[in-house]
Each structure stands twice: as structure tokens, then as C-alpha cells.
Amino acid sequence: MRFQDVIKGVRERSESQLESLRKVAASELGDRSDLIVGVNGSLARRELTSGSDIDLFFLTTNGDIESAAAAQRSYRSALEAVGVKMPAEGGVFENPLPIADLVKVIGGSKDTNELITRRMLFLLEGEWIVNEVEFRCIRERLIDRYVEEDLDEHKICLFLLNDIIRYWRTICVDYENKVQGGKPKAIRLIKLRFSRMMLYFGGVVAVEGTGELTTAHKRATLVSRLSLSPIQRIQNRFGRRADAALTIYAEFLEKIDSVSTRRALDQPGDVGLNSDEFKFLSNKARLFKDELAKLILDDFGSSNPVVRAILL
């Protein structure tokens, strides 16, 4: 199957699921202005496969965590009742978050791993379920924080790029912690080397070329680019030159859509790492990384400020 067909297929599946989630939300939550409900993960990136679960998040506009948590429980139960696969309880998105925490805390000791994760995923892949207008306003407010009024128009949006780089390095380091105690290693490592790397690369692409623009134009460019999926950003930036990388990525999406592949990768510890499925995808991951590196070095060039920021 051509990679374009694979990508089109997962995108259409994702759009259908998003529409279903919005319908259930409209019925269960109504038109609540005090909440923003969104989704991250493969669904938000338009890469939904058969094994994907739904990574919901709730934000509160008025700081009423208790009310937001009750709404979250109600909505989650409604989705489970219609057969939507939800992640296990717990995790970084378990609790609703006040919008102020998402927007105001960037850097410093209060910027925890949880806040970095929630902020970066909101920007780089998040999609709305409830309260679209406010969702987009929050994205614009975040971009305004990263692109301050006095930023020299000749400079790229380095503050944002540094946070994207920091997030990528954080999840790479955290991998070792998350697989301790015999937990499945293979599935996490393959996702890190494909979907997480795609997310990171899509963030780098969003920032590239924001030099030589006015502050208003920098902000508008980021708003436009970050409203697209990582795959769309890469296609828009590189055109057919991205075909090799996307062909490999489509192979990953096809494989991860297979029940037998996911079962093999979900095996604990070194068992999953020794599976044929892991070895195949691990080899593909090396090729995928090589193709992304070619795009950066051949298209951006070594003198590009984005490349220099990644290196130093």
C-alpha cells in the first residue's frame, strides 16, 4: 500500500473518532464555558490505529478543579459506555488543570515534568473536543508567551524551540525510568523512536523560518503551523522530499495497527526487545531517523539558526 493511502486511512479514522467524541461531549457536558476538553496522542495527530486509546485532558477556566473532575469522570464513563478505549487510571492527564498553570509557568523550579508535558503536547499535537474557541485562544496565549513583543525580528523563536528540545530530551531520559521493574520496553522504545520523534521533528519544523519576521507575523505563523498535524507540517515544508521518511513512518503505522505486532511489543522487559517484530521496527526506526536528519541537513543547511540551536 502506498504511504499516502496509509496516512489518509489513519487520518480519516481519526476524524471519524473525533466527531464521535464531540457528539458524546455535546450530549454529556453541553455548552460549558468553564471547561476546555481536548485530546492528545495518536488521535490528535490523526494517526489513530486499532490499539490506540484516547488521551483526554480537561482544563478549567475558573479554577474549579472539583467541578471539572466530576465532569471528567462523567464524560469518561459516557465514552466507555459506547465502547471507546480509555487509558488506565492515573498518569499525567488524570487531573484537570487550571489554564493559568498551563500558560504562566514556563521554566524554573515550578515547571515540573507534568507541566512541561501538558504544555508541549497541547501545543504540538493537542486537538479540541469541547470549547473550540477557548482552546484556540489558549494556544495563541501560549505562543504569545514564547514570542514576546520585543523579540528581534531577525531572530527565530528560540524560546519555544529550546522548550521543544528540552521536552524531547526529557522524554528520552524518562524512558529509562518508565521501563524499570520488568515493564514493557519494546512498545515504549518503538513509540519513542517513531511517534515521539515525529512530534519533536514537527515542532522543530514549526519554528524553522520564523526569523526575518515581525512579532505579529512570527506569532501568526506559529498559530497556523501548530494547527496542523506533525505529518502535515512536514509535508508542507518539504513536499516530495519527505516521501522517504513518510514511507517508513507509514510502515510503522501499519505494523502498530496489527494486533500480533502490538502483542509482541507489549511483552515485558527483554522478551519484547528480542521479538522479530521489535527487531524489524527497530531497523526501520534507524532508517527513519536517518531520513529526518537528511531533511534537516540538506534542506535547512548547517548555517540555519535552528540547526545551530539544536547543536549548541
TrEMBL record:
InterPro entries: NT_sf
Protein name: Polymerase nucleotidyl transferase domain-containing protein
Record organism: Chelatococcus reniformis
